[in-house]
Design a protein that fits this description.
Shape: globular
Radius of gyration: 23 Å
Structural class: alpha/beta
Length: about 550
């Protein structure tokens, strides 16, 4: 069995996640279950054997039908279509059979067609080439399976006995899913859905291998301030459920000497988990989002250890459900962190009202695919957080001769649809909104220690995680530290002025920000970090001993 590179694995997972919007539109009597066949590419560093892929029951599409050859050069991934049970017969639908008009916050569903030829057309070579290796030309599914006769029961040319239960996938610890040496990944195709913006550096371990809380506190001067978030509530908005988050964060807290949640001891913080409307009926589990939730909760807590955390889990990753979760979060917290996003769409400004809340600051990850803008980071009512590479020694000092530089995956650029807010005009000086606003460590090669016991590609335990999603909750925690003791909490909804841009005034800039002046996130204009504001790292990374007191005093 030929192996797949880790970027290829992530790309397959991204396809499966995008199908969630189709699943959301199913009605009673409908099922999902078509399949798509790929050829595996040549062996590469950090590759994962194909028979060890996608055997996670928490994925949005059932993999019960997954079967893989004992030898050969192909693997298969289930891709959803809609089958309607009608008068006792199954009828496969195509997009023309079904209403695909957009719902709230959606551009449209772009349903995958059910014909074999159209399945191939729906995923063109330009989208999936490179790390996937060669396809079976552009043959339809039936023809492809004829070249690999041991794949699927019920598919022409197939005689597989059913699902292959292989061992858990093992990712060599030297392999990164992203970063300067990684194969570039395509941005997600979004028609009303969002993705978690995280990257896992290596296989899980029994102890933390990424940065510790003390290293990050020292690197960003958090160890030089006394604020701890007392009296503040940070809302974390994500999709799906992390079923073990309470026990996972307890393990994280024990490891790094942090206060435990929900002890009923006066002054100790609380962690409350609700669905998108504030109820206790939580959504189903998704492994990728569960790891994102662990990252968000654990590291918001690491930065503001006495702040309460409200975790709001949306029913799915559709924008409509995520925005409902945002609305609930904004009504119950002073800061809202959103470590997810999707491609910009022409009507996005119509949804900016979700972030126009006085007394609430919204933070959002800027994206992990290099140059380019995503939503909701593009909203001018949101503090968009870009990514850096932060090389530290064991004490949290920058390595000798090194500096914090732009991460190659940091999302950024000029919005196609959002107008430039006045607060940004003297910094970006364009007619459209510039992204990001600020930056934070995001490179998985300089990633964070995260504990997650929900199986992720067969792995559980301690992970090293990066991505711009790591910065969004930590910037939210910084705002909570600044809000501590203020008579009114900061807001990010004013287009006339912005606290983080006020903190970048010439007289105070060097005290409040570490200017990121090296590195890039692509080629072409607006892709290189420069002195002052740029479209890769924004204003720069925080120096907490300067910016937290400054924001507190506004």
């Amino acid at each position: 069995m030929k192996p797949l590179s880790r970027p290829a694995v992530r790309r397959v997972h991204r396809i499966l996640l995008s199908i969630e919007r189709l699943e959301d539109r199913l009605v009673p009597g409908e099922t999902m279950g078509a399949m798509l066949l790929f050829a595996a590419g040549p062996a590469a560093d950090g590759a994962v054997p194909a028979q060890e892929l996608m055997l996670d029951d928490s994925l949005p599409v059932s993999t019960d039908c997954l079967a893989l050859p004992a030898d050969g050069d192909a693997f298969a991934v289930p891709i959803a279509t809609v089958q309607t049970i009608q008068d006792g017969e199954q009828r496969a639908e195509t997009p023309s059979d079904r209403d695909t008009s957009p719902g709230a916050g959606e551009q449209g569903l772009d349903l995958l067609p059910s014909t074999e030829e159209a399945l191939w057309a729906a995923l063109p070579r330009t989208t999936l080439s490179g790390s996937f290796g060669d396809f079976f030309a552009t043959a339809p599914l039936g023809a492809a399976s004829a070249n690999a006769p041991a794949l699927f029961p019920g598919v022409p040319g197939s005689s597989a006995p059913g699902r292959a239960d292989g061992p858990s996938a093992t990712i060599p610890p030297s392999t990164s899913q992203a970063g300067p040496a990684a194969v570039p990944e395509a941005a997600p195709a979004v028609g009303g859905t969002a993705e978690p913006l995280l990257h896992v550096k290596a296989q899980s371990s029994t102890g933390p291998n990424g940065y510790s809380r003390d290293q990050i506190r020292h690197a960003y001067h958090l160890d030089q301030i006394s604020a701890d978030g007392t009296g503040q509530t940070i809302a974390i908005v994500d999709a799906y459920n992390a079923p073990k988050i309470l026990s996972d964060v307890r393990t994280f807290n024990t490891q790094f000497g942090l206060p435990q949640f929900n002890t009923n001891t006066p002054g100790d913080p609380t962690l409350k988990v609700v669905n998108q409307t504030g109820g206790s009926n939580l959504p189903r589990t998704d492994a990728g989002w569960a790891l994102e939730i662990s990252l968000d909760v654990e590291w918001a807590h690491a930065i503001a250890p006495k702040a309460n955390i409200l975790l709001v889990e949306a029913r799915s990753n559709s924008f409509s459900n995520l925005f409902a979760a945002v609305d609930y979060a904004a009504a119950h917290a002073q800061v809202v962190s959103m470590s997810w996003g999707g491609s910009e769409f022409s009507s996005e400004s119509a949804y900016d009202y979700h972030f126009n809340k006085t007394g609430v600051t919204f933070t959002a990850a800027s994206g992990d695919w290099g140059t380019g803008v995503i939503y909701p980071a593009a909203s001018p009512n949101v503090v968009a957080v870009g990514g850096t590479t932060l090389p530290l020694d064991s004490s949290g000092n920058l390595l000798p001769g090194s500096s914090e530089t732009a991460w190659s995956g940091s999302g950024g650029g000029i919005s196609a649809y959002e107008s430039e807010p006045p607060y940004q005009s003297t910094f970006a000086n364009t007619s459209k909104r510039g992204v990001p606003d600020v930056s934070y460590d995001a490179d998985p090669a300089t990633g964070f220690s995260v504990y997650d016991s929900t199986s992720y590609y067969g792995q559980s335990g301690w992970f090293v995680v990066g991505g711009t999603s790591a910065g969004a909750p930590q910037w939210a925690a910084l705002v909570a530290l600044a809000n501590e003791g203020r008579s009114t909490p900061l807001s990010s909804n004013s287009l006339a002025s912005s606290p983080v841009y006020s903190a970048a005034g010439s007289a105070v800039y060097a005290s409040n920000y570490r200017d990121i002046t090296a590195g890039s996130n692509g080629s072409g204009p607006n892709t290189t970090a420069t002195t002052g504001y740029d479209f890769v790292t924004g204003l720069g990374s925080p120096l907490a001993d300067g910016i937290v007191p400054y924001l507190h005093s506004l």
